[in-house]
Amino acid sequence: MTTDKDLERKVHKAIKLEPMLNAAKIKVTATEGIIILTGIVDCSSKKNKAEDATKQVEGVFAVIKKAEVKLNQKAKRIVKKTAFEKLNDYWQNWNGTKNIAKGKDEDGWITLAGELNWN
């Protein structure tokens, strides 16, 4: 029978084998086949990749992802800009009407304001 410590080692090894993951930043805790992943990653795809690697380990019954996603400053600016541009573009082109809204971005909170025609 696999102990919790053995399972933790196996999961940590599986995560370490994933090239895009930094295993040192992901903490693994096992309790009766349930794995809890904590720590910090810099994008949600890495969090999902860690979960996928964990699910492949024999003896794992469930995975709880508690790892935090903390974007670096460059990624934050890109994500914020892209989200703002996409939402603003969608809002301004909704229903074929142009320039009906104004958008603003304050500390990651995107606010769109304007008027729409309603049936």
How far apart are the termini?
Answer: 65 Å
Instruction: State the secondary-structure class.
Output: alpha/beta
SSE pattern, N- to C-terminal: HEEHEEHEE
Main β-sheet: number of strands, strand sense, barrel status?
A: 4 strands, mixed
Q: How many E strands?
A: 6
**What is the helix content?**
25-40%
Averaged pLDDT = 78
Shape: elongated
Gyration radius (Cα, Å) is 21 Å
Our count of helices gives 3
The low-pLDDT segments are none
- Proportion of β residues? 25-35%
Describe the structure.
The protein has 119 residues and is an alpha/beta fold. Helix content is 39%, strand content 27%. The protein contains 3 helices and 6 strands, in the order αββαββαββ. The chain has helices at 4-16, 44-55, 73-93; strands at 26-31, 34-41, 62-65, 68-69, 101-106, 109-114. Strands 1, 2, 3 and 4 form a 4-stranded mixed beta sheet that branches. A two-stranded antiparallel sheet has the order 5-6. A hairpin with a 2-residue loop joins strand 5 and strand 6.
Features:
119 residues, alpha/beta, four-stranded mixed sheet, two-stranded antiparallel sheet, 3 helices, 6 strands, elongated
